[in-house]
Amino acid sequence: MDLEELSSTLSSIEGEYRGRSAAVASLHDLETLRSEFVSKKGKVALVYRQLGAMPAEMRPKAGELINALRERIEADIAAAAPALEEAARQERLAATAGDPSALVAGARRGAGRLHLVTRTRIQLEDIFVGMGFTVEEGPEVESEWYNFEALNIPKYHPARDGQDSFYLNLGEEDSMVLRTHTSPVQVRVMQNRELPIYAIMPGRVFRRDTADARHTVGFHQIEGLVVDKGITFGHLAGTIENFTREYFGPDITSRLRPAYFPFTEPSAEFEITCTICKGSGCRTCSHTGWIELGGCGMVHPNVFEAVGVDSEEYSGFAFGFGIDRLAQMRWEIPDMRVLTENDIRYLSSV
Ligand code: PHE
């Protein structure tokens, strides 16, 4: 190859470069061009490698020509970059408008979410607050009086059996328990709040159950309590039906069946349409079309007496059910133990 041939090779490379660079539309195109023309394995470098095959006296001039082309191309690329960078930035801004976190690499990856049970509790609170209820809380460690006695559960009642309750080694022997239900909060609310009362009381409860698909040892309940003049069983049924439809949607309805609780009279269990089969009957609901959710009834006069409410003037209803159980039905979770096992892969899927 002589100098003339070299010049024409170089000018054809340059011509090709000019043609291609006119079509560059992004930083990525520009980078491709840089790598094809002026990288270590680019077209210009390939010509440079042929230098060794040229007559020695030609080499300085040839080197100069090749270097000059490389510099021209590099300068051209450098000049094109800022405008393309700005265009890319504008595009990112437009794509992430209103969401600055998307600009921070990885900002979304570690973001957690509230546990399903917590989300369910918040939804329930929203529904009942919308119906005019207040939200109240009480302690998880209770005296026997609040957890049992004031609720008309006397000493010999089987619900007090050590099989169900965790007794604590605090104060007098067998006097303190981890609450076995949220009903003791009813008692506290009636003691501490002015009448009338329209309140819900969510919280953790504890039972010495063996964990299985439908039970865990620590779980959550939500209690409802209404005390006012002229409250009837009809108000109770209407409140439960209202909440069921708000939470599950119009396909799911509720019904009450006679039951027994020491602290309500009359008492009922409330059931909702089976969420799996929508009432037609399946294994989950033992082919009845209904699933039991919780207990309810009219506040027992003995409970009113324990907290000094005049049961001649006031009446009321109470209900209670498991929040975990409710979430299990709504999300069709086959085994409730997943809710306490802290497996992030599962928890982030519900
Ligand atoms: N406390 C009862 C339970 O844990 C539920 C209930 C609450 C029943 C209020 C009636 C009234 O099973």
Describe the structure.
The chain has 350 residues and is an alpha+beta fold. The chain has 2 domains: 3-108, no CATH class; 118-347, BirA Bifunctional Protein, domain 2 (2-Layer Sandwich), CATH 3.30.930.10. Helix content is 40%, strand content 19%. It has 11 helices and 10 strands. The chain has helices at 3-22, 27-38, 43-49, 59-95, 116-130, 144-147, 183-192, 233-248, 301-307, 323-330, 344-347, and strands at 134-135, 141-143, 167-168, 176-178, 197-206, 218-228, 254-261, 264-273, 290-299, 315-322. It has a 7-stranded mixed beta sheet, with helices on both faces. It is rod-shaped. Phenylalanine binds at residues 181, 183, 223, 261, 264, 294-297, 318-320.
Ligands in the model, by name, code or SMILES, are: phenylalanine
Distance between the termini: 71 Å
CATH topology of the largest domain: BirA Bifunctional Protein, domain 2
Query: Which spans have pLDDT < 50 for at least 5 consecutive residues?
Result: none
Keywords:
350 residues, alpha+beta, BirA Bifunctional Protein, domain 2, seven-stranded mixed beta sheet, three-stranded antiparallel beta sheet, rod-shaped, binds phenylalanine
Topology:
Elements: H1 3-22, H2 27-38, H3 43-49, H4 59-95, H5 116-130, E1 134-135, E2 141-143, H6 144-147, E3 167-168, E4 176-178, H7 183-192, E5 197-206, E6 218-228, H8 233-248, E7 254-261, E8 264-273, E9 290-299, H9 301-307, E10 315-322, H10 323-330, H11 344-347
Parallel strand pairs: 1-5
Antiparallel strand pairs: 2-4, 3-4, 5-6, 6-10, 7-8, 8-9, 9-10
Helix pairs in contact: 1-4, 2-4, 5-10, 7-9
The protein binds phenylalanine.
